[in-house]
Structures are given as structure tokens and as C-alpha cells.
């Protein structure tokens, strides 16, 4: 099979590679780019462990061809924070014990990020509805929902602090 060239912006950095046209985005991220935070759970779009953002929208990377992401921007869990400064969602998942085995965590975090970009103060019903495409066989979801609500609170507080700092500087 003839290979094709792709150019995908991953976590702010352009990645170019020659790949087989049938390469899934999840495999491109893990095997070509070397970002292993995105998990392969089912390869059928059922579990959500492979969730990433494609141009800001949560997608299951096991059902997106890397070729479809050509010329687009992908954000993975590695792109949210740094080890020395975790993103509020990552901090909230740790503080609220929102994982046990951890396999689904990166997909949950990316879905949470997508949820909180739209609404930083979602109620439990909305969170549970938007998490329906992500499976966790360990936690029962209560801690995950609590973590997302807490992350929204942290993000709102950070925004308020930033606004106050801008006001002080002005």
C-alpha cells in the first residue's frame, strides 16, 4: 500500500510523517509521535480511553484516521499540563481520587476538559450525560463527577485571579 504524508499539529507542535492511509489517529499518536497517554481500549469507539481533542472537539481517536487529522490540531492528555504545573483537571482527578487502575483516566480527563471548556459550572446531570461515551469499570463514576465539578471550581478561581491581576496592573 502506498504511504501518504501527514502534517498534524499535536499539542502545539507540528508533526510530519509518512504513514499508511489506514493508520488510526490513536496509533499515530502512540507509535509515530510517541505520546502514550492516549490509550487503546476497544478500537470500536465504545470505551472512550482514546479520547483526544481534534480542533477543540472531543473525538475517539480509535475511529479517526490520522489522514483525517491532516492539517488539523490535536490535543492529548500530555498537552494539558506539565509535571511541574498540572492542569486544574489533572489536579482535581488526583485530589478527588477519580481513578483506580488509571486506564480510562486520560480519556476521562480529555472529555472533562472538553466539558469544562463549554461550561465551567456543569451540574451532575450534565456531567453524567456528557460522560456517557467514556467507560470506567473501577470507580462507579462518583469520584470522576466530583473531580470534574471540582476542576470547574479551580478553573473559575484561576480565571478570577487572572482577572484581578489584570485589573491591578491596569
TrEMBL record:
Q: Key word Oxidoreductase present in the record?
A: yes
Q: What Pfam families does the record point to?
A: Fer2, Fer2_2
Q: Which InterPro entries match?
A: 2Fe-2S-bd, 2Fe-2S-bd_dom_sf, 2Fe-2S_ferredoxin-like_sf, 2Fe-2S_ferredoxin-type, Beta-grasp_dom_sf, Diverse_Oxidoreductases
Domain 2Fe-2S ferredoxin-type intervals: 4-80
Q: Which UniProt keywords apply?
A: 2Fe-2S, Iron, Iron-sulfur, Metal-binding, Oxidoreductase
Annotated PANTHER family: OXIDOREDUCTASE WITH IRON-SULFUR SUBUNIT (PTHR44379)
This chain's protein is named (2Fe-2S)-binding protein
Amino acid at each position: 500500500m502506498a504511504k501518504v504524508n501527514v502534517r498534524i499539529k499535536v499539542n502545539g507542535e507540528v508533526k510530519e510523517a509518512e504513514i499508511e492511509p489506514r493508520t488510526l489517529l490513536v496509533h499515530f499518536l502512540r507509535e509515530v509521535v510517541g505520546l502514550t497517554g492516549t490509550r487503546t481500549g476497544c478500537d470500536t469507539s465504545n470505551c472512550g480511553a482514546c479520547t483526544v481533542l481534534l480542533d477543540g472537539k472531543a473525538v475517539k481517536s480509535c475511529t479517526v484516521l490520522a489522514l483525517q487529522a491532516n492539517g488539523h490540531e490535536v490535543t492529548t492528555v500530555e498537552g494539558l499540563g506539565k509535571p511541574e504545573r498540572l492542569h486544574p483537571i489533572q489536579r482535581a482527578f488526583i485530589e478527588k481520587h477519580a481513578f483506580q487502575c488509571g486506564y480510562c483516566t486520560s480519556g476521562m480527563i480529555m472529555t472533562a476538559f472538553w466539558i469544562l471548556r463549554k461550561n465551567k459550572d456543569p451540574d451532575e446531570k450534565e456531567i453524567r450525560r456528557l460522560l456517557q461515551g467514556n467507560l470506567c469499570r473501577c470507580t462507579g463514576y462518583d469520584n470522576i463527577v466530583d473531580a470534574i465539578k471540582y476542576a470547574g471550581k479551580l478553573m473559575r478561581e484561576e480565571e478570577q485571579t487572572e482577572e484581578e491581576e489584570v485589573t491591578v496592573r491596569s
